[in-house]
């Protein structure tokens, strides 16, 4: 059993089953929405739970990390994805926008716990996730199946074989901060913070951001923003 001691336990659909192999790895997603509550409603609707949902205020755990989550596509006859010892985190925000600095700090703290609990090294075996290009999928993602199946470390959803989503699209500064951040025993950030503006609305009259990933995204109430919200 592996439950994060500083996360709020919030089960939704349950696990996809025990892990079937592979070294432990951390998989980074973005929710393509603006709230944790909207994301969790979508997970329930689509049975697509990650292990964790993280925003600027909270860390929610939905599935014990000793078992598989549900947020990845897994084709029959190929490599395992959800059950390949992949600990999956959904960060509230959008792939094409800068990430909230407070949420990234919570994410990095959670990663330190997962790394210690499961022996995950602070590396990107398939390279850093590629940032958005003109607000869209930059292309050129490394989804090498052998790397995924044999190397522990951090991966973006964009690196997972059999999947087509291009999140989390971190900037270089965001990706480096996630691996470098250090914390005190009580969770205080000890290393330098990367200056980042909050993601989402810039003013009271600004329109809510909309996902540029056409088959992924939720509204504030958790209703699908696009026809397809199943793992890809």
UniProtKB/TrEMBL annotation:
<dbReference type="InterPro" id="IPR036505">
    <property type="entry name" value="Amidase/PGRP_sf"/>
</dbReference>
<protein>
    <recommendedName>
        <fullName>N-acetylmuramoyl-L-alanine amidase domain-containing protein</fullName>
    </recommendedName>
</protein>
<dbReference type="InterPro" id="IPR002502">
    <property type="entry name" value="Amidase_domain"/>
</dbReference>
<feature type="compositionally biased region" description="Basic and acidic residues">
    <location>
        <begin position="134"/>
        <end position="145"/>
    </location>
</feature>
<feature type="region of interest" description="Disordered">
    <location>
        <begin position="197"/>
        <end position="232"/>
    </location>
</feature>
<feature type="region of interest" description="Disordered">
    <location>
        <begin position="124"/>
        <end position="145"/>
    </location>
</feature>
<dbReference type="Pfam" id="PF01510">
    <property type="entry name" value="Amidase_2"/>
</dbReference>
<dbReference type="GO" id="GO:0009253">
    <property type="term" value="P:peptidoglycan catabolic process"/>
</dbReference>
<feature type="domain" description="N-acetylmuramoyl-L-alanine amidase">
    <location>
        <begin position="26"/>
        <end position="168"/>
    </location>
</feature>
<dbReference type="GO" id="GO:0008745">
    <property type="term" value="F:N-acetylmuramoyl-L-alanine amidase activity"/>
</dbReference>
């Amino acid at each position: 059993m592996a439950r994060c001691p500083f996360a709020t336990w919030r089960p939704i659909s349950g696990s996809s089953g025990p892990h079937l192999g592979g070294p432990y790895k951390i998989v980074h997603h973005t929710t393509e929405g603006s709230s944790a509550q909207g994301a969790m409603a979508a997970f329930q609707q689509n049975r697509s739970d990650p292990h964790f949902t993280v925003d600027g205020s909270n860390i929610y755990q939905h599935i014990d990390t000793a078992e598989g989550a549900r947020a990845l596509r897994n084709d029959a006859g190929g490599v395992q994805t959800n059950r390949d010892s992949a600990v999956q985190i959904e960060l509230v925000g959008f792939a094409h926008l800068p990430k909230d600095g407070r949420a990234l700090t919570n994410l990095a703290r959670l990663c330190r716990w997962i790394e210690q609990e499961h022996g995950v090294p602070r590396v990107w075996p398939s390279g850093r996730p590629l940032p958005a290009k003109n607000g869209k999928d930059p292309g050129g993602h490394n989804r090498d199946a052998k790397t995924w199946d044999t190397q522990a470390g951090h991966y973006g959803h964009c690196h997972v074989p059999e999947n087509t989503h291009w999140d989390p699209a971190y900037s270089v500064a965001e990706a480096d901060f996630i691996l470098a951040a250090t914390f005190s025993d009580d969770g205080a950030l000890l290393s330098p913070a990367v200056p980042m503006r909050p993601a989402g609305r810039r003013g009271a009259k600004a329109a809510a951001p909309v996902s540029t990933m056409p088959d992924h995204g939720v509204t504030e109430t958790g209703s699908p923003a696009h026809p397809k919200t199943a793992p890809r």
